[in-house]
């Protein structure tokens, strides 16, 4: 199946810009109900201020909301992003887990988001 998909879609890639599993996880959570292009406009500022789960978990809620406001549903997304960051800091020593079973325990992360991260950051 993977071979057929790779042959059929040789240029398939993730449209979100990211440098780490953490960045992809946050960007994927932000991508709900908005475009990847919009998320890519916001993430440089967000990750410039909060590059790690520790930084994100400790950030000022209103500051994060203001940065991601243009993605829509920014209050819920901020809650998820800060919650998943705290969980990664507290339960996984600051490292994004590489298992579906662990990823879906993080706030705001369901199977779809977990599979995006697993397929693009851990592939």
Secondary-structure map with pairings?
Blueprint (H helix, E strand, L loop, with lengths): L1 H7 L12 H10 L5 H14 L3 H5 L3 H8 L5 H18 L8 H4 L7 H11 L2
Characterise this structure.
With 123 residues, the protein is mainly alpha-helical. It has a single domain (16-121), classed as Hypothetical protein, domain 2 (Endonuclease III, domain 1). It is 63% helix and 0% strand. It is globular. Pfam families: HhH-GPD (PF00730). It comes from Actinocorallia longicatena. Keywords: 4Fe-4S, DNA damage, Glycosidase, Hydrolase, Iron, Iron-sulfur, Metal-binding.
List its salient traits.
8 helices; Endonuclease III, domain 1; single chain; iron-sulfur; metal-binding; 123 residues; mainly alpha; 4Fe-4S; hydrolase
């Amino acid at each position: 199946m993977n071979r057929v998909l790779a042959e059929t879609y040789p240029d398939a890639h993730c449209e979100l810009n990211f440098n780490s599993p953490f960045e992809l996880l946050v960007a994927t959570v932000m991508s709900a109900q908005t475009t990847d292009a919009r998320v890519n406009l916001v993430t440089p500022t967000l990750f410039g201020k909060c590059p790690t789960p520790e930084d994100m978990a400790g950030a000022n809620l209103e500051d994060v909301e203001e940065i991601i406001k243009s993605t829509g549903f920014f209050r819920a997304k901020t809650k998820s992003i800060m919650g998943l960051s705290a969980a990664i800091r507290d339960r996984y020593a600051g490292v994004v887990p590489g298992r579906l079973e662990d990823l879906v325990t993080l706030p705001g992360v369901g199977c779809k988001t977990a599979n995006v991260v697993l397929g693009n950051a851990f592939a």
